[in-house]
Amino acid sequence: MQPPRALLAGTITALLCACSPSSTVAPASEAIVPTSQAATEWLEVVSDIAEEDDNAARRGAIRQQLASIGLEARAENFDSEHGPGENLLAEVGGPADAPVLLLGAHSDRVDSGNGAVDNASGSAVVLELAERFGSDPLEHHRVVVGFWDQEERGLLGAGAFVAQDNAPAVLYVNFDVFGWGDTLWMSPPGPEHPLLASSRSAADTVGLELSAADNYPPTDHLAFRKAGWPAASFALVGREEIDGILAAYAGTPPEQTPRLMEVIHSELDTVIELDPNAAVRGIDAVENALRAWDSQVGTEQKGAAG
């Protein structure tokens, strides 16, 4: 996830010191134990990515995870002012001639911490959804997954992907900082987009709140929107954090520092911060929302054709 402009300018210390020393939610003091096999496996995937020393090795870990579920990664290389970059793409499944649903997350991290929350967590969500949609494909859409490089440099990998004449997907769904909390935080493709309604229903079913608005931290979905693609983004946080996070991104540090702003881009960004049980509830919600969206869109298309 891109930090606030002030942090990009190297003033993270000043921003956090301007806030109260107390946090809305304190960083974790001990790891949360997974209570299901799905939560255990998701946390293991995050750990495999986060424990790597550099971004190239993180991509290597993602390649291995894709191979473990029978998917082959292909690399799309690009150059930027920060040097060469590499995006990873993989075909998941679905009808060969169907429109594409693209799911993605950035694989790179900053130098501080292990980048477990930002964004091995999001990458692990995409890998889990790839496994689910690979074993039980959508009826009306072909799923492709992408892992973007140099997000932390300014959404450069996602921007390079859309600039490389890749055919637009009917929907891009992004995942960034999927760490803990009671709220699925969404930037929807639009106020009337069917994914918004299906996400609200799906979140409620698994016991999560949905917070959806255009006011949302900058991450890779913006590169797709700039290119004219319908795009959404999901994060998993505590509801009480959202106003403070948005205030920090607006350049007005809140009285209490939200947990997310203490963790990301810092030495605190390790797997101990993650709540794998909440993450799996969030993944279940997103999967169900996308399946409902697929069914609704497919039904509408058949009705229009008839």
Helix/strand structural class: alpha/beta
Distinct helical segment count: 11
How helix-rich are the residues, as a percent range?
40-55%
Mean pLDDT: 91
The CATH homologous superfamily: Zn peptidases
Shape: globular
Q: How does the major sheet shape up? A: 8 strands, mixed
CATH architecture type: 3-Layer(aba) Sandwich
Proportion of beta-strand residues: 15-25%
CATH classification, class level: Alpha Beta
Your description of this structure?
The chain has 306 residues and is an alpha/beta fold. It has a single domain (5-299), classed as Zn peptidases (Aminopeptidase, 3-Layer(aba) Sandwich), CATH 3.40.630.10. Helices cover 42% and strands 20% of the residues. It has 11 helices and 10 strands. The strands form 2 sheets. Strands 2-3-5-4-6-9-7-8 form an 8-stranded mixed beta sheet, sandwiched between helices. Strand 7, helix 7 and strand 8 (209-212) form a beta-alpha-beta unit. It is globular.
Q: Can you give me a brief rundown of this structure?
A:
This protein is α/β, with parallel strands linked by helices and 306 residues long.
Topology:
Layout: H1 5-8, H2 12-17, E1 20-23, H3 37-50, H4 55-68, E2 74-80, E3 83-93, E4 100-106, H5 116-135, E5 142-148, H6 156-163, E6 171-178, E7 183-187, H7 194-205, E8 209-212, H8 221-226, E9 231-237, H9 242-249, E10 256-257, H10 259-263, H11 276-305
Helix pairs in contact: 3-4, 3-5, 3-11, 7-11
